[in-house]
Amino acid sequence: MNAHCPTADAQQRARRAQPWLGTLVDIAAHADSERVLAEGVNAAFVAIARVHRGLGSHDAESELTRVNRRAALAKQTISTDLREVLSCALAFAACSEGAFDPTVGTELVALGLLPPLVRHARGATWRDVVLDEAGVLFKRPLVLDFGGIAKGYAVDCAIAALRDAGVTRACVNAGGDLRVFGSAMETVHVRTGGAQSVLLPLLTIRDGAAASSAYGGQRRRIRGRMVTPLIDPRTRLPSMTTRTVTVVAPTCMVADALTKVVALGSERAESVLARYGADAAILSPAKGRWRCTRLPRVVGNDA
């Protein structure tokens, strides 16, 4: 799944890309001086690298892995980044009645989609995670995974760094999770997944975020079984949906997380979208074409 992140069109501008978060992160920015541009783009990539290193589930030395190893034994102090993402993840879990669940890392390890870095027990859910001012504690061994939310958070951190540096307009795109700020409208292009993959101009946004996931293109065979990284928390099994879901929201972290709730067809999807001021569009393959279904208030072009 790709989305288009256009360059700025006035005064000083820059466009840079670096590999982070399991994808290529593209930053296009505009400012009144080359110095502000350079400082802003550099600070944005520093923020992305910080989130990548701290919240990665594949890194044996990351803060998230340390918490996963120890939080069932004793309460763990955590960074601002981990607290922010975990707090939001638990809030999404509660309001979606578990349709979003950051503890599906246990199932991803069992499927071979995450490395077996920590001890875990089957049956754990988001309700087994206790977060308070002192830190985080697990009621039983489990595996937190932020694969469904951390990329969006990293994009938000990059946008904050660009703003703080004095950049006046920017677009940060991490493999289809993107956020823009500034006066211009930006067109979001979505690449659908699967054998019928096409690139479509879906909608436009200004001063907001969009996240897209093409689940039809994420199937793979592991140990003789077809799986996807989208785990349905209700069954704890991989979802084989062919939907391509795009969510528009005020922040990329919210948009990123809510693509999972929408893709799983949760009965709570519309109420959760409304709660977070978000909209969604669903592309589904139908007789050689893509059918676009919109949940409330999303505005765009028919596919």
Structural overview:
By secondary structure, this protein is an alpha+beta fold. Helices cover 28% and strands 29% of the residues. The protein has seven helices and 16 strands. The protein has helices at 34-54, 63-70, 80-95, 105-110, 150-165, 252-263, 269-275; strands at 12-20, 23-31, 129-132, 135-138, 169-174, 177-181, 186-191, 199-205, 208-214, 220-222, 225-227, 231-232, 237-238, 244-249, 279-286, 289-294. An eight-stranded antiparallel sheet has the order 1-2-5-6-9-14-15-16, covered by helices on one side. A two-stranded antiparallel sheet has the order 3-4. β10 and β11 form a beta hairpin. α5 packs antiparallel against α6 (252-263). The chain is globular and about 55 Å long. The two termini are 15 Å apart. Mean pLDDT is 85; it is low at 6-10 and 296-303.
Percent range of helical residues: 25-40%
Strand content: 25-35%
Strand sequence of the main sheet, in spatial order?
Answer: 1-2-5-6-9-14-15-16
How many strands in all?
16
What is the mean pLDDT? 85
Class by helix and strand content?
Answer: alpha+beta
Summarize the biggest pleated sheet: 8 strands, antiparallel
Order of helices and strands: EEHHHHEEHEEEEEEEEEEHHEE
